[in-house]
Amino acid sequence: MKNMRTMRFTRTALKNLFSKPATRPYPEQPREYPERTRGHVEIDIDACILCGLCSRKCPTGAITVDRAEKTWKIERFGCIQCGCCVETCPKKCLTMKNTYTRPGAEKTEDSFLKTNMPAPAAKPAAPAGKTEA
To answer: Which UniProt keywords apply (predicted)?
Structure first.
């Protein structure tokens, strides 16, 4: 029995010694992802209206929208790439790109500032002689 295991191990070791490696050299040869791979969320901040639906639909709370500061933020390592935000966006300014966030020792948060957002409309003034209750 022991001799049989030794022969099986020797056969496996020789086979692996002369075969191609199962893994690729990662940094030198980056992976190419198939077309339908879910990767990371990207935003077209110019098309965004900062409605906040994406942040409310995010199951992990990785997206933060602040209308007052005109910012849209995503915590990359908190995002689980489910695509709920992309499906919910009324302006279709969110998309899923088939690349992933590079691993790192620090948590990353991407922040986008909307610069061309129109100012909120002024409240119409009450007609002369009338007061608001």
So the answer is: 4Fe-4S, Iron, Iron-sulfur, Metal-binding
Q: Cβ contacts of residue 78 below 8 Å, gap of 6+?
A: 60, 61, 62, 107
Q: What is the pTM of this model?
A: 0.62
List the alpha helices (DSSP H) in the chain.
2-17, 53-57, 84-88
pLDDT digits (tens, 9 = 90+) for 90-109: 999 999 988 777 777 887 78
Q: How many CB atoms lie within 10 A of CB 51?
A: 14
Which tokens go with 7? 């022969």
Euclidean distance between CA atoms 25 and 13, whole angstroms: 21
Question: Under a CB-based contact definition with an 8 Å cutoff, are residues 40 and 99 in contact?
Answer: yes
Closest CA to 75 of 49, 38, 115, 104: 104
User: CA 89 to CA 84: how far, in whole Å?
Assistant: 9
Alpha carbon 82 to its chain centroid, in Å, reads 9
